[in-house]
Amino acid sequence: MKHARPLVLTTLAASLLWLSGCDGNAANGATQTAAPQAQADAPAQAAVPVGDAIEGLPFASSAIATFNEPWAIGFLPDGSVLVTEKNGVLKHVAMPGGETREISGVPTVAYAGQGGLGDVKPHPQFAQNGIVYLSYAEDGEGGRGAAVARGRLDLDAGTLQDVSVVWRQVPKVSGNGHYGHRIAFDGDGKLWISSGERQKFDPSQDMQSNMGKMVRLNDDGSVPDDNPFAGKGEIASQVWSLGHRNPLGIAFDSQGRLWNSEMGPAGGDELNLVKRGANYGYPIVSNGDHYDGKPIPDHDTRPEFEKPAITWTPVISPSSLMFYSGTLFPEWTGNAFIGGLSGQTLVRVEIDGESAREAERFPMGGRIRDVQQGPDGALYVIEDGKDGRLIRLAPREG
């Protein structure tokens, strides 16, 4: 029997809705047409009033701007922000004022269920090359799948130019859930992508598919020669680790180690230290069970699979992951922060070697879709859904 960890949710209704670990977007909704791209000279959107955004937090919070179904935050070197909206819109946000404008040239997205425009990350050398990476769901032969494209951002023109796809999920399948598709770069400039198993279970263990995997590539999408399965097939060569379900957070700690947060099934959300060539066991093992109540053996029953550093039952529905390295909150240096959808929380995690423990939860009063550290050392979160706010969290004055 799986043992539940105590969890205080904002409402009882939220607890019942989120027990399954779903991110709350219907997995098989009807296809919707992506919003048309704005013209480069479209007027900037006015910022929302800045003021106290969330009561009762141990830090000051201020709302910067609002968005329609925002999914990810990507800071540029000048301190401005790129924000993706799931229906296929990319916006640039001036800081600190919060004036927004739309960026044209974004690839066409398959906007349905959990699918649409996803993550956004500037290239590590963005100041020199202007390259930005986007993940998104796309249509194709056999159904849908995640893709990652890169293009050159021209802020003066408000356009993304010379866009090319550098990676795709294989194969494309039916359904609109569990794309994963978070993006990260390591200290060597390698491109990392979290690839969900698309609610198909078995691909997580199938090395002929890159679904349910952590993928490591060069920045142009080519495969590094030192990947753990290099030379074992075109798809297998991309893979760094396998046995994942719906990994919606990936981030590197101060030692350069990759961690991921992922949604479990009915229970068993996870935080994992991602190791070279490791198998994390899904769907063979999980600390959650299937939605229909059918049990899944716990990780403890199969020691050949890598165990999570933390599991959550009831779930938090982890949407995102970052490690804090700033100076505004020196007591949190090296801590991980996880955005919680169902719990409507920001979860702080302390790391000790290869172990981790939940240290604190901050009730945010809304579903947190992404959390990032800004160049100013503040924490920035963005809320899920319509009218989702970009919020800055900083120490209280005095």
TrEMBL record:
Every Glucose/Sorbosone dehydrogenase domain range: 67-392
Transmembrane segments: none
Key words of the record: Signal
InterPro entries associated with the record: 6-blade_b-propeller_TolB-like (IPR011042), Glc/Sorbosone_DH (IPR012938), Quinoprot_gluc/sorb_DH_b-prop (IPR011041)
Any matching Pfam family: GSDH
Signal peptide bounds: 1-26
The name this protein goes by in its record: PQQ-dependent sugar dehydrogenase
